[in-house]
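Entry:
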Amino acid sequence: MNSKEQKSHWNLRFEQGLPSLTKPDPFFLSAYVQFVEPLFPNAGSALDLACGLGRHALWQASREWRVSGVDLSDVAIGKLRHAALERKVDLDLLVGDAFGYKFVPARFDLIVLFYHLDRSLFPRIVFALKPRGLLICKMSLRWDMAGAGDALHRNELPSLVPELHALHHQERPVRDRGVVEFAGERKEIG
């Protein structure tokens, strides 16, 4: 699918509603408590790439994080703006493809990426993390040779971010595919 087709696809999906994507993912919550809170007890700056309805962005903003969110779907960003107003939290939101996002060096303490695969993003994500910054990521995974076409291969994710120290890396089967959960910390520069 090209970018325009993807945008139409996701706009339709978000218009129809995706209630499963309104609550933070259990892995995100667990990784936050285990890795993020100890390093950033006073919050910081975060980027939620391909944020959709903003389940993680809203949760972080409610805990004093300065959160930027990017998503291709203007429907999702519109719903997220409305949810942020209702919850009285500030979010910096942008409608656009994650690939087109202008990454600034060492800008974020935390970057969240769930179920959006673009391998070319990973070097740019690392570039945008501050030293000791964290990436929390969850992706679809090819569990067997006939697995999902647009998914990571087993043990591929750590190789895409060699500059990060893996704090957590787990791969497991889920129905007809697999899932990889990853939390990594950017190594000190120098």
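The mean pLDDT is 90.
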